[in-house]
Specification:
9 helices; about 300 residues; single chain; binds zinc ion; alpha/beta; 5-stranded mixed beta sheet
């Protein structure tokens, strides 16, 4: 490795774990490590770990003859990217944490703070399944459903840091209650958790969304019904997304995307049925897996660096 090679310190902080890496400007990961978030310790302890890990990574880069040039941190919840503040997060417990400035002070490096799904979308749009599409909607379906609208490599943040909350599109007014307090949101019907919950409710047997998909494929009528209902709701949500954004490609990530053709085949058909004059987007599976957030955090940091040096 040539001495002086530039890298970005990147962290993707989730409710249970942190994915951390040193990433080159071209998106290649030169070193990766994982740490526990252990959110039960409280937000201050989590912030302490984030700063320690980031500092450790910068030190590791220097020890390896690399030059850390920036730091990118992705967190879940509501994120004010302009102010660099983690405004609110249910699973990590952040309330108005000025994480960008804290990291910048500790590391002495230009730092960017981003939203986990928005930076994941950034990475998929620039390096992954949405490459060369220009207009991309990235939809992460797991415990919840969130999205990022990426245009020419830049993800819309929104006026209040809450753009892309496609999981809270109202799809079934008389549907199950959502975590946000309203019934019938897309994620209350079609997230991986919602699919498992619905199946358990109807069958009395607990199951994961993956198991529901398996049983549906095996011809079990109840699983088939639950899976179909979720796919229909997802198609409703995606059709709304397409009406709003007119994207070239919709990239589906998160745990549910692992169902592969069992998700994508019926979803493509259901979406096709719902579109009238809108052009049909390409519907593809995410390509970067759970590295997307970390790579996206690095890209966001590089973007910030480019802006600051302009
Ligand atoms: Zn909701």
């Amino acid at each position: 490795m040539t001495s002086g090679d530039e890298v970005v310190v990147a962290l993707d902080v989730g409710g249970t774990g942190m994915k951390c890496a040193l990433v080159r400007p071209d998106g290649a990961t030169v070193h990766a490590e994982r740490h526990a978030t252990d959110a039960a310790r409280g937000p201050e302890a989590v912030v302490g770990t984030i700063l320690d890990v980031a500092e450790g990574l910068a030190g590791k880069a220097r020890a390896d003859g690399l030059t850390p040039v920036a730091c990118g941190i992705a967190v879940p919840g509501v994120v004010d990217e302009a102010r660099g503040v983690a405004v609110w997060s249910a699973n990590v417990g952040f309330r108005d944490v000025p994480l960008r400035d804290l990291a910048r002070e500790r590391l002495g490096l230009p730092t960017a703070l981003g939203h986990d799904v928005r930076v994941g979308g950034l990475a998929e749009a620039r390096l992954g399944a949405g490459r060369d599409a220009g207009h991309v909607l990235f939809v992460a379906i797991g415990t919840g459903i969130a999205a990022a609208h990426v245009v020419d490599g830049s993800a819309a943040v929104g006026a209040h840091g809450a753009a892309g909350e496609i999981g809270h599109i109202l799809v079934r007014p008389d549907g199950p209650p959502c975590g946000c307090g309203r019934p019938g949101c897309l994620e209350a019907v079609a997230s991986a958790s919602a699919i498992g919950r619905r199946y358990a409710e109807l069958s009395g047997t607990p199951a994961t969304a993956a198991e529901v998909a398996d049983r549906a494929a095996d011809g079990e009528p109840l699983a088939g019904r639950v899976w179909r209902e979720a796919v229909e709701a997802l198609a409703d949500g995606l059709a709304t997304g397409q009406a709003l954004f007119d994207v070239a490609t919709i990239v589906i990530g998160g745990g549910l995307a692992q169902a592969g053709p069992r998700l994508f085949d019926p979803l493509r058909t259901a979406l096709h049925e719902r579109l009238t004059f809108h052009r049909e987007p390409r519907l593809v599976a995410a390509a970067l897996g759970d590295e997307a957030g970390c790579l996206g955090a690095a890209l966001l940091a590089l973007d910030t660096l480019a802006k600051e040096s302009r």
